[in-house]
Design goal:
The chain crosses the membrane at residues 12-38, 58-78, 90-116, 140-163, 175-200, 207-224. This protein is mainly alpha-helical. The chain has helices at 6-18, 20-36, 40-43, 46-81, 84-107, 114-119, 121-131, 140-150, 156-167, 171-194, 206-224.
């Protein structure tokens, strides 16, 4: 994958921004839990709650970037075992197929990608209990720990972008791909926390979902060609 091409990062941003329907499904309950998990005095004042919500999400996005760097490094290691050109093409081909499946998933035309989410369930079962002692949240450091753990919640969108990060065969590019994706998710999840989902519900319109899906499918097909 030519990570110098802006469409790589545009796709990552679009997946994060327009994947709001999936965010509502996967993260809605967690966002509600984290909001209710704040100390009541903090929760009642939106101005005091804002720093905590930002820390939750920035720590989550940092977790994505760490995972992207790890997968980029994994892709780089894989290219050492076989012909560099052949391995990169295989990784790019895999990323392209996943992009097409992700586009179908975002548009609501296929649920095949949901199988990816089940792969991360064992890891999440080990990580989720680690966050429990940090509730209710009264300090920003607690919010940071919980936010970083949140990044490892099983999610088809995240796993799809991690495969793209792996195909970059570069830890820095992998981290940047995941960072861009994470920033795209920020408006939906902040809106979900503060406005009871009013911002996130904008992405429930079928034409927005289909437009997002078609954009991602188009990028995947271009990669295949």
């Amino acid at each position: 994958m030519d990570v110098s091409q802006p469409q790589v990062y545009f796709t990552a941003l679009a997946v994060g921004l327009l994947g709001g329907v999936h965010c509502l499904t996967m993260c809605g309950g967690l966002v509600a839990t984290l909001t209710l998990g704040l100390h009541p005095e903090i929760r009642r004042d939106p101005r005091r709650m804002l720093p905590y919500q930002l820390v939750y999400n920035l720590a989550r996005i940092s977790g994505y970037a760490v995972a992207g760097a790890l997968f980029g490094a994994l892709g780089s290691m894989l290219t050492e075992f076989e012909s560099l050109k052949l391995t990169q093409r295989l990784l790019q081909g895999l990323a392209a197929v996943i992009m097409v499946l992700l586009g179908l998933y975002l548009a609501g035309w296929s649920s095949a990608l949901a199988a990816l989410e089940r792969l991360g369930a064992p890891l999440w079962r080990r990580l989720e209990p680690i966050a429990r002692p940090f509730l209710p949240v009264q300090r920003l450091v607690q919010a940071a720990v919980i936010g970083f753990i949140w990044a490892w919640l099983p999610c088809g969108l995240v796993y799809s972008l991690l495969i793209m990060a792996m195909s970059s065969a570069d830890p820095r590019a992998g981290a940047l791909i995941m960072l861009t994706f994470g920033l795209g998710t920020l408006p939906n999840l902040l809106g979900l926390a503060f406005l009871a989902g009013a911002v996130a519900r904008l992405t429930e319109h079928s034409w927005i979902r289909r437009l997002a899906g078609l954009l991602v499918i188009g990028f995947g097909l271009a990669m295949i060609v």
